Amino acid sequence: MPARATVRIEVPVGGKLFVDGRHINVAAGTRAFQTPVLKPGETYFYDIRIEIDQSGVVSADERRVVIRPGQEVAVDFPSLRARSTTTARTRE
Questions:
Q1: Residue 40, CB half-sphere, CA atoms under 13 Å: how many?
Q2: End-to-end CA distance of the chain, in Å?
Q3: Looking at the predicted structure, is the pLDDT value of residue 18 above 50?
Q4: What is the structure's pLDDT at 25?
Q5: Exposed end of the chain (fewer CB within 10 Å): N or C?
Q6: How many angstroms separate the CA atoms of 22 and 48, rounded?
Q7: Whether residue 79 has pLDDT greater than 70
Q8: Where are the domains of the chain?
Q9: Rounded mean pLDDT of 25-48?
Q10: Sign of the C-alpha dihedral, residues 47, 79, 53, 30?
Q11: What is the pTM of this model?
Q12: How far apart are CA 65 and CA 87, in angstroms?
């Protein structure tokens, strides 16, 4: 029986998402996409890229995501996450 797959992509703050070379305009956070109906027993893939401008320097990372009907796949780009900063707090 034909089925769809779900691809969950973690888009970092300031990141631009590209799927198979096409820019997809989405906000930062976890984004879920359903594929079209896929044939049973077949294997498919998407090329997913994130570009992010960090202080004027554009960094990018790309993953080839292999999917099969009925699967849920998560894609993350930890190398592109903004570095956390520590904020000093004062007591009053």
A1: 2
A2: 65
A3: yes
A4: 95
A5: C
A6: 9
A7: yes
A8: 6-80
A9: 94
A10: positive
A11: 0.81
A12: 37
3-state SS string for the chain: CCECCEEEEEECCCEEEEECCEEECCCCEEEEEECCCECCCCCEEEEEEEEEEECCEEEEEEEEEEECCCCEEEECCHHHCCCCCCCCCCCC
Rounded Cα–Cα distance for residues 37 and 35 (Å): 6
For Cα atoms 49, 53, 57, give the angle at the middle one, nearest 5 degrees: 110
Mean pLDDT (whole number) for 56-64: 91
Structure-block tokens of residue 89: 């707090």
Determine the Cα–Cα distance for residues 54 and 48; give it in Å rounded to an integer.
19
Q: What is the mean pLDDT of the chain?
A: 86
Report CA 73 to chain centroid distance, whole Å. 10
